[in-house]
Amino acid sequence: MKLEEIMTRKLEAITSDASVYEAIERMVDKRIRSLLVRASHPAELDGVVTARDVVFKVLAKGLNPMKVRVGDIACRPLRCVPKDETVENVAALMAQANVARVFVCDEGTVVGLVALMDIMQAALIDRARNPHA
Amino acid sequence: MLKKFMRGDRKEEAALTAMHEHLDLLCAAGQTLTELLSAGGKDLVDKIFDLEREGDTARRRVLSIIFEGAFLPYLRPNLCRFVELVDEAFDTVEDTARYFDLIALHPTIAEECRRIASFNQQMCEILILAFELAVRGEDIREQVLAIRILEKRVDDLKGDIYQKIHEVPVADFWQGKFYADFLHSLTAFSDLIEDASDALYVLTVSFR
């Protein structure tokens, strides 16, 4: 399967100046585990904040999520892959980098997101289509 | 596995061949619909109508063979149910083509509609594969799961479409109704294929 077929195109983003509490609200409301973090000023890069970041860097440390800036816990830079990359290579990259998601980029613009669940589903569909492979 | 429970006469072979033909026609219709949503063209609409009629002929042939006494009696209701579900899916493809011909697919939702048609086509191909494996006595659990995954993807796209549908301008009530009917039939296909794969799986499980 092509990456374009399995990637999530509807991306939820949050500005880096927003509070972690707002990020939690957004993730819970949309039932997602990560948000694209848009830089608030030119010196900053875009990043990603995940539920793992929220729990390990804020909640587990007893910090007040309303007082922590999303930009301060986001992971940067974004891990991007081209949209014509193979699913197998993306899976290998994720394994090597120990990340649960990568962004799909086209000419410098983020166009989608591929997560572990997407890779698993693509593998299952591929197995179903080639039963004796 | 299905062949194991046949009584060895040609009626059952003929029924299975007709069922495979029915599925082949459905796949061809699905592929034509994918092309139609990308390229348009009255000839493709007509082709789908023709395929649906051929599908009806194949369905009648299967059912008449079954009613003539093919297969053990306890298998017949489930086999008929499978065939009827495939036929209902065929009807949704025909309806989708008909309504597409009556609307102008708005760019706001065009990409999602094309992706749904592509997923529908993939589901159909996997269903044929599942049928072939079931006839040979092999496990079809992976195929059923793959169909379920694709059906969930169609549901997600359906949700995206209905969030954006308000941006699509409609001139009058009837255009709005045709749009709604188009989207309904386009998205109903995946539900029916999922039901058909479940019916096929129940058939294979009941043989164990």
Automatic annotation (TrEMBL), chain A:
<dbReference type="Pfam" id="PF00571">
    <property type="entry name" value="CBS"/>
</dbReference>
<protein>
    <submittedName>
        <fullName>CBS domain-containing protein</fullName>
    </submittedName>
</protein>
<keyword id="KW-0129">CBS domain</keyword>
<dbReference type="InterPro" id="IPR046342">
    <property type="entry name" value="CBS_dom_sf"/>
</dbReference>
<dbReference type="InterPro" id="IPR000644">
    <property type="entry name" value="CBS_dom"/>
</dbReference>
<feature type="domain" description="CBS">
    <location>
        <begin position="7"/>
        <end position="66"/>
    </location>
</feature>
<feature type="domain" description="CBS">
    <location>
        <begin position="74"/>
        <end position="133"/>
    </location>
</feature>
<dbReference type="InterPro" id="IPR051257">
    <property type="entry name" value="Diverse_CBS-Domain"/>
</dbReference>
TrEMBL record, chain B:
<dbReference type="InterPro" id="IPR018445">
    <property type="entry name" value="Put_Phosphate_transp_reg"/>
</dbReference>
<dbReference type="Pfam" id="PF01865">
    <property type="entry name" value="PhoU_div"/>
</dbReference>
<dbReference type="InterPro" id="IPR038078">
    <property type="entry name" value="PhoU-like_sf"/>
</dbReference>
<protein>
    <submittedName>
        <fullName>DUF47 family protein</fullName>
    </submittedName>
</protein>
<comment type="similarity">
    <text>Belongs to the UPF0111 family.</text>
</comment>
<dbReference type="InterPro" id="IPR002727">
    <property type="entry name" value="DUF47"/>
</dbReference>
